């Protein structure tokens, strides 16, 4: 396998920009990842085929067609009502046994392997001819050998196999093509819920001439920053939350793009400036641990309840910090705020209460910045299968309200029972989960107990089943309906916060991921780690980032609008100043003339 | 004996074809994926593949696949296997209603 360029990570983990092809710093480079060879290690056969424009065009067209076909077909089979290509199959009798098949069902055409004639569940398609075949029986690889054709692709993943290299190869062009084709198919098949309009087709950013010139003189810096944070006296709760911010792609991109410049900011005790300074430290050339003293000091000044050297709860600090950053961020408002915190973390819950007598449903929508999950059911026992998914199911399970808890506005007099159900109406780009491990028991026990029950969390999770949209499209047999392509609901884990010990004397540590390498952070000690260590660590909090970001269609970005408004305002101010100055000059002249 | 195995072969191919064309294959696969992910099977394989390939020389897909295939097949949780088998059985049964 050729050394993988960073764009494969784009396919796996969303749009993370990278400038650096450096080998992973903490681990000895293996033979093929020598810095000088990292580009040359690409498959030479692709390079030579692509050198010929018509051959390249042929391969690319075929690749696009295959990938688009598969994406459409997957969407259509998961969403039966919207099947596009249909072909009726008539009833026929099985030649061997006179058995009748079910009455005609809508069917979608399917390729068969040209070698063994079986229907292909996972077609591999030759990129030079019309051959399609099985992978596991070796039919496609045999075809390539026999015909001398070099490349084939897996329709589902877009992986390209080179029969000369006898391995799957990575190529930037193919990776980008795969992504853009799949995104385009999905765009055509999803509509916005409220506006009922289609999505705007994705367009990659192409720098203008001015921007290209500006970029020429920029020094590139490595895209990874990793530094330990010194413990300033029971401040591990602060350090783990800061590390989760540092490794949060949206926050990182915002502050690295200089969107809140601490040198120009006029606020005092500005937590947003502290974030800017934090990122400056992390991405500076030094990588020795440093102490976030000013961040801590500002936090104390703004939130007195956080001050003092006692151990604080990391989740409380998380919420406090979010509110502080929101408050000092440019453009923050109290209603439908557009600040970086809300853009990153804000979602909405919907609570539907159905009256059991008349069936009226009352819906309430509430904003949220994170999701806190119970580890135990109402009755107090621990659940049998403790996974993130089971906690979410419990959270969104219909709950019966007692007769006294609810009275329907439509039914008169007697209040009957009602059923309440929570669901997620809007999913934020970053999902933060907290597992409620600290229970405040009121039953006379002296100290609150910590629940150490292990919870299994996945590296990726599909949030569709917990959304309002999916729940409202549930089929008759209880199956969750299809609420849109998976890409809109896939999230990838990027940080986990752990707590060891008891409530009053414990220690916080965390894991965080950069691209696909995991690291463990214990205050100032940072070590390379693995996915498996992270998942086995028993999370207290965990953070997921959406794999594909979505946008409101056909709108100018708010920061561009804000900048334009600023320019208009500045020009108006200039004119006023100029007018005032002219008036002064006139007045002075008049005074001189008058004085004669 | 060989005749009945070839009968079975023909029926298998036919049911297999219908399941794919009907879309039921994709629906069951989708469900299977989410159950395997929830049980940690997917992440376990991802972790093993990554750690194996860190020190593999020469790095090759076929080798990774070979090293993982039998473990992957045997480590599927029993409950998941059972649930999916039931769904498949149901589909096959429906196809054979007289």
Overall description:
Chain B: Belongs to the ENY2 family. Chain B: Keywords: Activator, Chromatin regulator, Cytoplasm, mRNA transport, Nucleus, Protein transport, Transcription, Transcription regulation, Translocation, Transport. The complex is a heterodimer of chains A (596) and B (98). Chain A has 16 helices and 21 strands. By secondary structure, chain A is α+β, with helices and mostly antiparallel strands. In chain A, the strands form 5 sheets. In chain A, strands 10, 13, 16, 17, 18, 19, 20 and 21 form an 8-stranded mixed β-sheet that branches. The longest helix of chain A has 38 residues, at 558-595. Chain B has 98 residues and is mainly alpha-helical. Chain B has a single domain, classed as ENY2/SUS1 (Serum Albumin, Chain A, Domain 1). In chain B, helix 2 runs antiparallel to helix 5. The mean pLDDT of chain B is 90. The chains are: A alpha+beta (596), B mainly alpha (98). Chains A and B meet through helix 3, strand 16 and helix 15 of A and helix 1, helix 2 and helix 3 of B.
The tally of structural domains of chain B comes to 1
Question: End-to-end span of chain B in angstroms?
Answer: 25 Å
Tell me the CATH topology of chain B: Serum Albumin, Chain A, Domain 1
Number of helices of chain A: 16
Which terms would index this structure?
heterodimer, A: 596 residues, alpha+beta, eight-stranded mixed beta sheet, five-stranded antiparallel beta sheet, 16 helices, 21 strands, globular, disordered N terminus, B: 98 residues, mainly alpha, Serum Albumin, Chain A, Domain 1, 5 helices, elongated, EC 3.4.19.12 (chain A)
Helices and strands, with pairings:
The complex is a heterodimer of chains A (596) and B (98).
Chain A: H1 7-13, H2 44-50, H3 53-78, E1 87-88, E2 106-107, E3 124-126, E4 132-133, H4 139-147, E5 151-154, E6 160-162, E7 167-169, H5 172-189, H6 209-216, H7 236-246, H8 249-256, H9 271-282, H10 293-302, H11 314-328, H12 340-345, E8 347-355, E9 361-368, E10 371-373, H13 388-395, E11 399-401, E12 418-426, E13 430-435, E14 438-439, E15 449-450, E16 460-462, H14 468-472, E17 490-501, E18 506-514, E19 517-522, E20 525-529, H15 531-535, E21 541-546, H16 558-595
Parallel strand pairs in A: 10-13
Antiparallel strand pairs in A: 1-2, 3-4, 3-5, 5-6, 6-7, 8-9, 8-12, 11-12, 13-21, 14-15, 16-17, 17-18, 17-21, 18-19, 19-20
Helix pairs in contact in A: 3-5, 7-11, 9-10, 9-11
Chain B: H1 2-22, H2 24-39, H3 41-54, H4 61-74, H5 78-95
